[in-house]
Structure formats: structure tokens, C-alpha cells
Design a protein that fits this description.
Blueprint lengths: L6 H16 L1 H10 L21 E5 L2 E4 L4 E4 L14 H14 L9 H13 L5 E5 L2 H16 L3 E5 L35 E4 L4 H10 L3 E6 L11 H14 L2 E5 L11 H6 L5 E4 L10 E5 L1 H4 L27 H14 L4 H22 L5 E3 L4 E5 L8 H6 L2 H14 L1 E2 L6 E2 L6 H16 L1
Parallel strand pairs: 3-13, 5-6, 5-7, 7-8, 8-9
Antiparallel strand pairs: 1-2, 2-3, 4-10, 9-10, 11-12, 12-14
Helix pairs in contact: 1-13, 3-10, 4-10, 6-7, 11-14, 13-14
């Protein structure tokens, strides 16, 4: 029998019709772009049906699309822009570095790498040594290779719904629970034997999974799943105890949450120190920059053979990348850290996000809407359900069509984010911006 449409399905159809009517310029550019760029984009995460918005300009907390429509931006390039678009001090740091160096890239080390690595080592409990990458994906890829090289083992444990980049060993069960399933075609079947997927935030399942799996080199985890699902602290402590006891390398993927949960990251917040940490997004202040940080003995395995003392017997793990640690990205990252380390800055940013989360919760309560508002620090997300959310399983069971319909309504109302994606806040968002946002959400929810 055909499925009976739900209220959410009907609302989504109307929201999509309004979206199309409001954005003819993006529709036209999409038709042209799709002739040369698959789906009209250069990253799948930038696409949403029926077509994405094409942007032309940004300033502070706002972006403008090709139709000239202005939006309050809660995507913020999927998280990197903690200081907002075009922060004067970040832009000036990039200009100054280009003028000083006379180039965009050396292909040789610079003092900026040392300076930023020193800063990270002072902030992150796990960062005894650092290697820079060009993205968070590269950081997680090299972290897994390093774990395999250090342990001589081959298998990787990850968790349902956790995203660690686009490489084969981690692109599993992104949008569905067990049994294990690759999130895309093109991933060799042989990889399935090397990747173990477990439920998130479940100590019993963790114990059973690690008891059953053998040859495990690494457990990689988002300590705060999806950027907003905070763990039972007992789960993170169990992860640390179990991996230590079994000689498994524990990797915290903090690409999304650092420094949005504080400059010590989730590991500082929860008092659990991993063996390796991966960073990205906000690290470069809006330019491509990632990092792999961790224990000195592990990180030292990347020292080239030519740089080792005679007779060294430790494993050798190759790490490279032409664009790792470009001077302008490092300069932008240092400028961003300078801003965020000023007294009270992160507190003010967190207060803005709390204003948004609390306001949204109050709207839902006022109108009797079953809504779970999630997050901490400068990130937020929300889902239509009356059930508490502890993992991606509860997210997938919520009314996602209703959330998607609301997100398209909000795009029409001038709030920019990719549909069904977490909200990021920046220093550029004001109290007035949050009040305006809450007003537009309430109007859209009750239309």
C-alpha cells in the first residue's frame, strides 16, 4: 500500500515551494553549475535538494546570495568561523603575512608552525607534539595510520553516526544504526573486515565489542557526537580504561568541537586524555588547516628515517602534504587564537549560544511542541521528539521531515544553514541577532 503522507511531508512540500519561489537566482546558477560540477558543488555536504544557495558576499554574522537576499549565518562554513566572516584582525594577519613573506607557500618549515604548535601544546592536555595537515579528514587519516604503525595491528573501531572524514575506514554507518554498512559505494569490501562499528554512549556494548574484536589498533571517537550529543562521562572514562588495558590507541576527533567547548577541548572538559587528537575547521580561522597532536612517543614515529639516530628500531610512519601548515593559514589560526584567549571572549560567545538554546526551548514549551534542544558552548541543534536524545539512534528516530520543513522555512525567512544541520555561533552574532532569530523561528514553527 502507498504510504499516507504525514503533516510533516505536507509541510515540507509547501516549504520547498516557497524556497524555490524565493531563490530563482540560485536555481538558475545551479542549472549552469551542474553541467560542470556534479550536483553543482565541489563537496557533497554543500548540496541540499532541490539546489543549494549560491553565495556572493559575507560580513560578520551575515551572508548574501546571488539573489541579493541577506541571511543571518548559522552554518559559518560548517563551523570554522568562530570569529565570524572577515574578522578585521584575522584578515590583517593574513595580509601582513603575505606582505612579509612575499609568497603564499614555501615548501619549507617556518616559525609559524612552531608558534602554533607551542600554543596547542599549552592548551590541549594530549598535545605533546603536533603535525599540521590541510584538513580534518587528513588528520584522522594520518591518526589511524599512526595507530596501526605503532601497534602493528590493523583494525579500527568507530561509532554509529560519527563522522571522521571521507576515507574508506571511517565512512561507515553515518546515517543508520548497525549492522555495519559503508556510507558510499566505492569502498572495498575488504575494508569491512578492518572497521568495527559500535553503538555510541553504551558502556556494555563497548565492553562486548572490544572483547569480541581482535587486532584492534585504534578506537576513534567524537567525544561529543555530532558536535552536540554529550557523552555519559562514564562512557569516555570506560573508553580510556579499556583502550589503555588492551594497548589500543585512543583517538579523539575534536575537529567540530574545538575550541567551541573551550580551548582545552572536550578532553579538558571531561578530564579524559586521549593518545591522539585531531583538529580542523576553526584551527585555521577560515583557511584550510588541520592538526594531528598527541603523545610524544607516538608522534615521534613520523620522524623521517634520515632524521633518526643510528640504530633506531621504532616503526616509521610516513606523514606528508604539500599544503600542510601554509603560512597564511597558520597566521589566520594564530590571530584567531589571540582573539579567543582574551579574557571573557569565549564566555560571551557561550552566553549567546545559551540565549539561543534557552529561547528555543521556551518557544517549544510555550506552544506544546515536542522538541529536544541540544548542545553546549557555541554549538546547538534540535530535533522534534519527546524522547531524550543520547545518540544518533534517537536523532534518526525523530521527526526529521518536520525539521527539514522548518529549515527551509527559515531559509526563506533569512536564517542560513544547511537543512538538518547543527547551528554554529560566532563572536559576530549579537544579542539582537539572537532575538531576531528566535522571533523568526517562532513564526515559522507556528505558521
Amino acid at each position: 500500500m502507498p504510504m499516507v503522507p504525514t503533516i510533516s511531508d505536507d509541510a515540507l512540500a509547501h516549504a520547498l515551494a516557497d524556497y524555490r519561489a524565493a531563490t530563482p537566482g540560485s536555481a538558475a546558477l545551479f542549472e549552469k553549475a551542474a553541467q560542470r560540477l556534479p550536483a553543482g558543488v565541489t563537496s557533497n555536504v554543500k548540496f541540499f535538494a532541490p539546489y543549494p544557495l549560491y553565495m556572493t558576499r559575507a560580513e560578520g554574522a551575515r551572508v548574501w546570495d546571488v539573489d541579493g537576499r541577506e541571511y543571518l549565518d548559522y552554518c559559518l562554513a560548517f563551523g570554522p568561523l568562530v570569529t565570524g566572516h572577515g574578522h578585521p584582525r584575522v584578515l590583517e594577519a593574513v595580509r601582513a603575512e603575505v606582505e612579509r613573506a612575499g609568497t603564499l607557500i614555501f615548501g619549507a618549515p617556518t616559525d609559524l608552525e612552531v608558534r602554533l604548535a607551542d600554543r596547542l601544546a599549552r592548551l590541549l592536555p594530549s598535545a605533546e607534539m603536533v603535525r599540521f595537515t590541510s584538513s580534518g579528514t587528513e588528520a584522522t587519516l594520518h591518526a589511524l595510520r599512526l595507530a596501526r604503525g605503532a601497534t602493528g595491528r590493523s583494525r579500527v573501531v568507530k561509532f554509529e553516526g560519527h563522522y571522521h572524514g571521507v576515507h574508506d575506514h571511517v565512512l561507515w554507518n553515518l546515517d543508520q544504526p548497525l549492522p555495519p554498512k559503508a556510507a558510499a559505494d566505492g569502498i572495498p569490501m575488504a575494508t569491512s573486515a578492518q572497521t568495527v562499528v559500535l553503538p555510541w554512549n553504551d558502556v556494555a556494548a563497548l565492553d562486548a565489542g572490544l572483547d569480541t574484536a581482535d587486532d584492534v589498533a585504534a578506537v576513534i571517537v567524537e567525544p561529543v557526537a555530532r558536535g552536540v550529543l554529550h557523552p555519559d562521562p562514564a562512557f569516555l572514562h570506560a573508553l580510556r580504561e579499556q583502550t589503555t588495558r588492551r594497548g589500543i590507541v585512543l583517538i579523539f576527533d575534536e575537529v567540530v568541537v574545538w575550541p567551541r567547548l573551550g580551548l582545552a577541548g572536550a578532553q579538558g572538559l571531561y578530564g579524559v586524555t586521549p593518545d591522539l587528537t585531531t583538529l580542523g575547521k576553526a584551527l585555521g580561522g577560515g583557511l584550510p588547516l588541520g592538526a594531528l597532536a598527541g603523545r610524544r612517543d607516538l608522534m615521534s614515529l613520523t620522524v623521517p628515517r634520515a632524521g633518526r639516530a643510528p640504530g633506531t628500531q621504532t616503526p616509521y610512519v610516513f606523514h606528508g602534504g604539500t599544503y600542510n601548515g601554509t603560512p597564511i593559514a597558520l597566521a589566520a589560526g594564530l590571530a584567531t587564537l589571540n582573539i579567543l584567549e582574551e579574557p571573557g571572549v569565549l564566555d560571551r560567545l557561550d552566553a549567546r549560544a545559551a540565549q539561543l538554546r534557552d529561547g528555543l526551548g521556551a518557544i517549544a514549551a510555550r506552544h506544546g511542541i515536542p522538541l529536544q534542544v541540544l548542545g553546549r558552548g557555541s554549538v546547538m541543534d534540535f530535533y522534534f521528539t519527546d524522547q531524550p536524545i543520547h545518540s544518533s539512534r534517537e536523532v534518526w528516530a525523530s521527526d526529521l521531515p518536520r525539521r527539514r520543513a522548518l529549515d527551509y522555512r527559515l531559509l526563506v525567512a533569512g536564517l542560513y544553514n544547511a537543512p538538518v544541520h547543527r547551528y554554529h555561533l560566532s563572536l559576530a552574532h549579537s544579542e539582537a541577532d539572537i532575538a531576531l532569530t528566535l522571533d523568526r523561528i517562532e513564526r515559522a514553527l507556528t505558521a
